[in-house]
Each structure stands twice: as C-alpha cells, then as structure tokens.
Amino acid sequence: MSEQRVTSSRDMETSYGYRQVGADEKQGLVDDVFHRVARRYDLMNDLMSAGFHRVWKDAMVTWLNPPRSPGWSVLDVAGGTGDIAFRIVEASGRAAHATVLDINGSMLAVGRERATKRGLEANVAFVEANAEELPFADASFDAYTVAFGIRNVPRIDVALSEAFRVLKPGGRFLCLEFSQVEMPLLDRVYEAWSFNAIPRIGQAVAGDGEPYRYLVESIAKFPDQARFAAMIADAGFDRATWRNYSGGIAALHSAWKL
Ligand SMILES: C[S@@+](CC[C@H](N)C(=O)[O-])C[C@H]1O[C@@H](n2cnc3c(N)ncnc32)[C@H](O)[C@@H]1O
Description:
This protein is an alpha/beta fold and 258 residues long. It has helices spanning 9-13, 26-37, 41-49, 52-64, 83-91, 105-117, 156-166, 186-206, 210-221, 225-234, and strands at residues 15-16, 19-20, 73-77, 97-102, 124-128, 141-147, 167-178, 238-245, 250-256.
C-alpha cells in the first residue's frame, strides 16, 4: 500500500485508491463504487465539494466556449449523470450535440432521466462504453471533455490515445480533475476534510462510507498537474496546459489535436 502520487499511467492501472490490485481487477471495483453511489451521486457531489464542483464545471465550459451554431459536437467521457454535457448544450444556446459516454449503466440511467426533465433529449445521446475503447470512428468530434473521470480509468494512456483518435484535426481536449493543492495550509485543511469528513458524510447520507474512501484515495494518488500534462502530450496532443482552481484542489487541463 502506497500513499504516493503515481507518476506513470501503468501505476494508476494497478492502484485502487491506496490498495494495490491486479491490472484486470480495478475496473470491476470502480464499477461497483459507481453502481452503489449513482442515485446519491449528485447530492453527494454538492456535499463533498461544498458546491464548488458547480463553479469548476462552469469554468470548464467557459474555457471550452462552444459555438452557438449547429453542427458542432462534443464527446463527454465518463459523463455519468450528464452535468458537463448539459452545461455545454445550454452554453451553445442548445445548438451543440453532446454524447455522454460512461461505462456504468446506473450513472447513465440517472443522466437520461435528468436530460428528459430538462427537455434536452434531442441534444444529448447516452452511450454505455469504455473510455479505453471508444465505439466511434476516427475524427468524429470537435471536442472531448472528461470531468472527474480519468482517474477512475485503469489505463489512462489508452484513454488519452482514444481521445486523440476520435477528435477531428483542430479538436479540443479538456480534462477537469482533482489535483495537487499548491497553497500552504490549504493542503492540510483539504486533506483533513477529504479523509475525515467525506467518508463520514458518505456513511451518513448514502449509508456507505467505503466508496467515498476510494474516491478520496484515488484523488490523492492521481498524477500532479505537470505530470498529467506530460501524459497528455505523450498521447500526441499539442499545447497541453492547465489552470488551477481553488488552489489546485481541481485542475483543468487543455490541449489540442493539431
Ligand atoms: C466521479 S464520476 C464523474 C461524473 C461526471 N463527469 C461529473 O463530473 O459529475 C466518474 C465516472 O467515471 C465513470 N468511469 C469509470 N471508469 C470508466 C471507463 N473505463 N470508461 C468510461 N467511464 C468510466 C464512472 O462510471 C463514473 O460515472
């Protein structure tokens, strides 16, 4: 068991939070977490981040700046209950088309219900598939987004190569993920909150603290900003850069397929 951040995609493949697992074991364990939390996922997101995930997601969509003309499409990978896709479609004045892809049918089921309630069925499609094996032709999308999802994917390098493949030349890659806190003191407060409060909130609200322990540990293991930018560049992307939010609690990486 190691609490160090991983520095390579391969190390992430065999780390389930702080536990070392077999390469083919991780996805099943992750799937179990999201099947268990799906119905409480949106509520827990608000509680765990004190509402901040909304601000970070809005910032992501602002940086993406989707055009307000029809014909532009985005693939939102590990899109879960649809938060990013819905924001993008709304920001485009309902001109954009979004495909929400997730490996977990329970998360997608919640997403479909939310899309119907918002009257967004025509703009949003839901696809159950693996980020490591995207069921789309090369050069299919104008943008690829992934929010709080990539750290759950066992083979991050494979997922990044797939992102590159399905983007059109000139396409945009954006990844929002929890990252390395770069403000003294805030890192201590954040660590105390993550490891003590979040599993307890999970226990109290969702009746199960274990999935939230995994989520917190997987955040602590994920590569830091610079290392992740290097992984994105290794997949073939240009101009890989990032912005920190809330002192680095979250980071938004951007890159282009040029
Ligand atoms: C923390 S949730 C993020 C959901 C959403 N993007 C958001 O920001 O609210 C992580 C999602 O990653 C999905 N996921 C995990 N492994 C995946 C994989 N290999 N391929 C696609 N999705 C995956 C999970 O099912 C889950 O819905």
